[in-house]
Structures are given as structure tokens and as C-alpha cells.
Amino acid sequence: MIDKKLLKEIALSESEYLNICELLNREPSSLELGLFGALWSEHCGYKHTKLLLKELPNESARVLSEMGKENAGVLDIGNGMKIVMKVESHNHPSAIEPKEGAATGVGGIVRDIFAMGAYPIAILNSLRFGPQDIPRNKYLLNGVVEGISTYGNCLGIPDVGGEIEFEECYTTNPLVNAMCVGIIDDKSPILNARADKAGDLAILVGADTGRDGIHGASGLASQSLEEGSDSRSAVQVGNPFLEKVLLESCLISAKMEGIIGMQDLGAAGLTSSVIEVAEKSDLGIELNLDKVHLKENAMTPYEIMLSESQERMLIIIDSKNEQKFLKFFNDRDLKANTIGKFNRSKNVKIKYKGDEILNTPVKILTNAPAYELSDKKPKWISEVQKYIPSKNNISDMNKILESLLKSPNISSKKEIYSQFDHQVQLNTIVLPGEADAAVLRLKKGNQAISISIDCDSKKCYLDPEVGASMAVAESCRNIVCTGARPIGLTDGLNLGNPEKMDVQYQITKTIEGLKKACLEFGIPIISGNVSLYNESNQKPIFPTPIIGAIGHIDDYSKTVTASFKSVGDKVIIIGEGQINEDENLLSGSEYQKIFENQLSGSPHIDLNKEFNLQNSLIEIIDNKLINSAHDVSTGGISIAIAESCILGNVGSNILLDGDNKKSIYFGENRSAIIVSCHPRKSGEVIKIANKHNVDSKEIGVVTKNELIINKDIRIKVERLMSIFYNQSD
Amino acid sequence: MNIGIIVFPGTWSDRDCEFALSSFKNVKTFFIWHKESIPKNIDAVILPGGFSYGDHLRAGAIAQFSLVMKDVFQLNQKGSPIIGICNGFQILCEAGILPGALIRNKNLKFNCSFVNLKYKKSKKFTSSIPKNKILKIPISHGEGNYQADKNTLNMLKENDQIAFQYCSESGVINDDANPNGSVNNIAGIYNKNGNVLGMMPHPERSCSIDLGSEDGNLIFKSMIKSF
Q1: Is residue A608 in some structural domain?
Q2: Residue range of the domain that includes A725
Q3: Is B86 tagged catalytic?
Q4: Given A119, A461, A580, B16, which is the most exposed site by the fewest CB atoms within 10 A?
Q5: What is the DSSP secondary structure assignment for residue A644, as one 8-state letter?
Q6: What range does the domain containing B85 cover?
Q7: B19 chain-A contacts, CB cut-off 8 A
Q8: Quick one: DSSP state of residue A551?
Q9: What is the tens place of the pLDDT at every residue in A71-130?
């Protein structure tokens, strides 16, 4: 029987090994076993999620791609233009080597986008770290930000937005998710990751293949991190300059005659790249490893096939054009070699130094098992869902508001986003921090797109299903607040070890929650990524389904930002503002975490109400009725209003009804948006809300320089700004 | 006027410069790949921002040896207008066309944000800027900390070669307004002859009110008018 240590290294179980022997009708060779380890890894094979992911809605009139079949999802936005987008995680590499882990995360997602023939126009980040008073967590944050900055800035792709949360559960296992959006203009075709016919060639372009990143997909991404283990050799090192040259060259080659397809080399390197293309094309391929340009001599076939060296692309062409393509890349100082030829055999053959060293059916290699997960609710989740009433007797609402504003989950992220180039390409018409989502114009005509990425992981901890629905709702609500209509989503699911029963429940419910919200909103998930085995101190992270949303704006002159604009404007709450005093509004809130030192209760969202709210706001903004929109999220109504004051450098005088002050001011579980408008327009705003069956109410007025809420809160805006931007006392 | 935009491997504001200049009538822009020579009909060149050659060694250090730079030297001798923006400024300093050097930002962090600039009059680059105007233009760099020795600084001052200085919204030049630690808040300089401008801020990024400012256009407009 095979050595258990070896199986652990490639993250295969004994039963999976036996399954392989049965399918092959023999024991696999060590090279084959390496290939199986990669292709059957959680990271490439989606063993624990593929049955569930199939359930997610992924179609609409705009969707041009088939879920899971391409490098990224494609949406038609009219005028012949197409938007390509995807989110991807690089969690474990960033836990070990934050700068390079985050940098190569950006590199990987950008390659996914230009592999489709799309020019990348925006990057967004979703980040999670442990508390910053632990030095290791601080080191991880600084390293990740530096990595994104170093790599992304060099590419000339703006980093236009993102979100970040700090929670205990991410200590030593940070989450680093990067989303990239690309555009295909009318003249260019969408490139697929496939060959047309037998005889087509595969050209490997870009970096030399080295010993870096071996077992990245299997060993690193598909197991829990081990205390004190040194997996640094499994983390790749990026070269953004080479990526930039590769990006520009590949996109020129995408328009050359004879191009058939393109595929990036990411997790599991050549193995997944070549074999997945063969599978999708329903063809076989013969690879010649002697043609792969190497960083060092004496690399074994195993190392060549599993290397995760960065900045490499596979270009699939019609054989007639071979010399033309090779010369094109060489002229641009990129190494390029024809390494494989597709055939009808439906087997992968590998040649090395003249010998055939592998001949295996593609179908068996890609036939990773699919596991059914338990959906039995763990006791501890039922326990935490029992709401523990507020115990503290702090009555100074000013103090609570100030503490919340200072919390790293709420305070300004300027220190981070100012390190990212967010303006290159001249499309960013709403800058980071100005609104709930980024807005990019498309230069052609008045169209724009709005992009957001979001997830409230504390809610997902208390109720994975409701939390996942909330993530969809919030990400869509963010783009709606700029005036955009949501048209597509990408999901980055980050969860714990799927071999544990409670995590199985979390995975099952998370996907159910996503599905429910997507069906209610009629919006498809067009691409995504799953990262499992995220644990800290043997405990799973909070389920963190990160949702990237994209919205369409017909006329960007109507775009709205979050800041209050003019003194005298009316402040209106649209949505669940008929203040529900239920203490449960505080379940999973920032207030509960900071002032009660616990998380408990059942978060709640009414998806139908949420959808109506979003539709009403789209109509209100389309009619140019309001001057600002900002949704109620972390910190509750009082924080949403304070932020609109801070961004506009104005005050406001607000009256909110109700007796249970804490849940009114700081409760988060409501679908509501704070808008401001000229006094003459407020009637029309309320009329449109009514038409959509959405509550709305005038709650106050924009004033010069002080935030006043009832008789409880009274703080100068100058002070709010200094707390928000500098975390000063 | 024919304006050449030089493209090195790693350059990324080439298309942004083309876009910003596309709003000017009578201006044609041409991309010039670093391996090519500059055509005879080119009247002015822009060295755009980016990370030429990945900024390996030092920002701008390798680009100065590109084939195209021979022609840039020649255009300079002829007195043709040359603007180096961000990485282009770094290249011009490395090539010795402009004095001084750009080192890492004082806080060692990349910085992308709007800054305010006070300008010094020049024949070629400021004629369209209203008197006493404070320009609002974005920066985006990790190595924009301008440094020079005492003699060079004295020379720059005496010859009115300090083109732009970082300042507050109201025009006060102080440490608070300095985003990167540059000596004397220097954001851009002219050469002695006045035909070369190097600046860290990106005028092409402030070419439309949609993007938050149109002040960068004033610099391009001045150059085009002066020709």
C-alpha cells in the first residue's frame, strides 16, 4: 500500500487513492499521482462544493458564458460591449508570505480576465485579518497591502474599491480575495479556453517554469494550515513587469488570425491548464516537456507539470500560424514555445527526453469525486442564535457612536486605498471612499458600470444562510446607491475544513442563502471561487461568502455619491425605517461585538422588501431626485448618517422615534437607505417609494457643522472627521 | 502639432495621455515603441507614467538606455518641447536631461491622491494657466521624493526652474502639503533652456471634470499654444 505521508503531501485520502487505482485498473505512477493530487484537490476539483454550486442561478438574458466552463463570466452590456469578471482567493499563500501571496493573487485573477480577450479595467479587494494588536496580524495586513500595491500598480489597472473586516477568527488565516473586471469592445471576440480540433497547437508563453509553487493547489490550498509548518516553497513569487508585458502582448495576439483559445496557468500550473483545455475541447493532447522553458536544469517531469511559476499563459492556435505567433511573442521579448498538440485520442500523453512517460485518459484525471455534505444544524449554532440581551448600562450615545466610528471595521480605509492606483485608465468617476460602490465610465457614450464587493461575516457566523443572503443584498444595495441596476454577481466562498460536520452545514446553508437571494433579485452568479480549509486555532473562520456585484448605469451624469451635499437638504430614510425596536436588530452588530463582547441572536432580512427598496431607489435616482444615498450597514442608522456628514463636511439634525435607543441607532439588521434631497423633491421621493410598497420617512435636515440625533447625540463634524480619518480620541 | 508618446515595456499612462490630448484640435498623437526611432515629423514628445522595465534597479534607470532615448536627446538639443510625467520624469532625471533624482517616498508607501500645486511661469508650459491659480492634479507614485544637492537647488531657484510645488488648497507651501518628502516641496522642474518639463503629478488624469479636475489640460494647452 502507498505511503500515507505521500498522500498527505498531495492531499488525497486513502479511499480516493483506491478509487484512482480502480479507475485506471492499476496503480498510478508517481507522476500520475501528482497530477491526480492536483486535479482532485479541493482547489481544482471542488469536491465538497460542486454538487451544491450547480444549484446556483447562473443565467440571464445578459449572460454570455457558461458557468464553470470558462476562466471568468461574461455579461452583455449593450452597444456591443461585454463585461468579464471574477473573484479569486489567495488566502493560504498570503498567510505564509503576505506580500507575494497577495501580489500573485492579483496576478492570477488578472490573467483569468485577459485570457478571455478582455482588457482589465478594475481590481477590487476583499480582505479579512485578525485584530491588529497582535503583531503577526499587523505584519500580515501590511504585507498584503504592499503586495497588492506593488503588483497592481505596476500593471496600470486601477484598484477602485474593496472592503475589509477585522475579527478574531481570521488570526493567522487572513482572507485575501481579489476581483477583476475586464471589458471586451465590439470588435473583439470572447476567447474560450479550448481548442477547436485535432492538430491545434498549445504555445506556452511567458515566464520560465521553475520549482516555485509546487503543491500550491493540493498541499497549500486544500488543507488547513499547520502551526509552525514552513510551506514557503509552495508560495509563488510574482513579477508584475512580466505580467504587464504578457497582458499587452496576449491581448494583441487575441486579435491575430489563427488564434483559437487562451488559458492562464494558475493553480496546479501546466497540469490543470492543459488538461482542462483538453477536457473542455473533448480532445486529447500530446505534451513535450523538453519544449518547456525552465528556470533551472534538472527539473523532473513531476516538477515541470506541477510548478506554479507565475506569469505564464497557454495560447491555443491553428497550426498553420505557428511561426507567426512564435515570432510575435519573441519580438516582444517574451519566451514562447509550442509544447503540445491536440489529437483525437482523448488521452494525455507526456513525452520527456524522447520517451513517453505518461498516457492517461483525460476523463479519469478530471473525474474528481463529488461529496455530499451534511446539513445537520450543529448545536453550537442553535446556541449562539439565542439572543443575549444587552447587559451594559452605558447611556452616553455620543460615546457609543464615537467608539463605533473609530472601530477598524468602520473607520476610513484611506490609509489602505491611497496606496493603490485607483485612477489610471481615466474611467474612475467615483473614487474610493466617496460612495458605497465604485463607478467607472466606459468612455464610449454615457454608459458606466458600478462595482462593489461585500460580506458581513459576523452575520454569517450567526446564521450562514441569512448572512449569505445579506451579502448578496448588501453588495447589490451598494451599487444601487450609486444609481446602477445590478446585472451580475461573482462569489468568493471562504469557509473552514469541509471534512468537519459543522463546516459542512455552513457550506450547505451559505450556498442556499446565496441561491435564495439570487432568485428573489433575479440576478445570476456568473463566476466564482471556493476556498476551504480556512481555520484559525483549529476553529473554522466565520463563513465569508464574498459577493462582487456589477451594475449598469445608462447615463453616468445621474450618478449619486454618499456625501450630504447642501445645507437645507431634507434627509429621508427609505426602507425599514418605521423603526423596528426589536433588540434582535443588534444581532451580529458591531455594537454587540464591541460593547457586549459577544455575538448572539438571529440576523434577519426580508428579501422581498429589500428587492422593492432597491428598485425604488433605482427609479428615484433615475429621476434625478436626490443628492446623496448611503445604505444602513455596519454601525446602523447613526453611523450611516454620520458618514454622510463626514464625507460632505456638513452636519445634520435628525429625529428618530422609538424608545429602545441602542437598537434604533446601532441596530444593523434592516434594509434601509439614507438619502438627502432638495426640500422641493422630498414629496416625489416618498411617492416613488410608496409606489414600490416601500416605507419612507423624512427624518431631518442637512445643517452646517454638527450632527444632532434626538437629544442623545450631538457631535461637531470636525470631531467626527478626526475620529473617522485619524482614529483620534 | 504632432506629439509622440513614448512607450516602454511597462509604461501605462500612454493611452491616458493619448486620451487627454484627443480633446485638442490640430493635435495628432503617435505611439513610439522604445525600439523605434522618433519620426522626423514629431514636434514634441511625452514620456508617460508607468513602470518602465519594471523599475528594476531604480525607477527609470534602464529606460534611459533604450534606443528611442537617442532621439529624445536630439529633440532636446533642438529645443523641442518634452514632458516627462511620473516615470517619464524619473527617466529624464536618470538620463541627465533634468537635474536631481527621485527617491522613495518619505513614508516608504505608494501614494495615489489629488494634490494642489503652485506653478512658476514658463514660456512653453504655463501660458494658459490663469495667474495665481492653484492646480488640482493627482499623483500616483512610490518614488516621487525629489532630491538634489545644494548647488543644483540654488541653480533651480535662480533660473526659475522649479515648475511646480506641492501646496495647500489655499497655496501655502508647507510640510503638511508635501506628499512624499520632496525638498522644497518640488513636484516638477524645467530644464535650463525651458523646453523640458518633468513632473510627478499626472496632468493627463485631470483632463475632465468627470474625473475631478480639468487643470492638467492647462499644461497641455500651454504647450500646444506655445508651439
Answers
A1: yes
A2: 385-406+560-729
A3: yes
A4: A580
A5: H
A6: 2-226
A7: 426, 443
A8: E
A9: 889 999 988 899 999 999 999 999 999 999 999 999 999 999 999 999 999 999 999 999
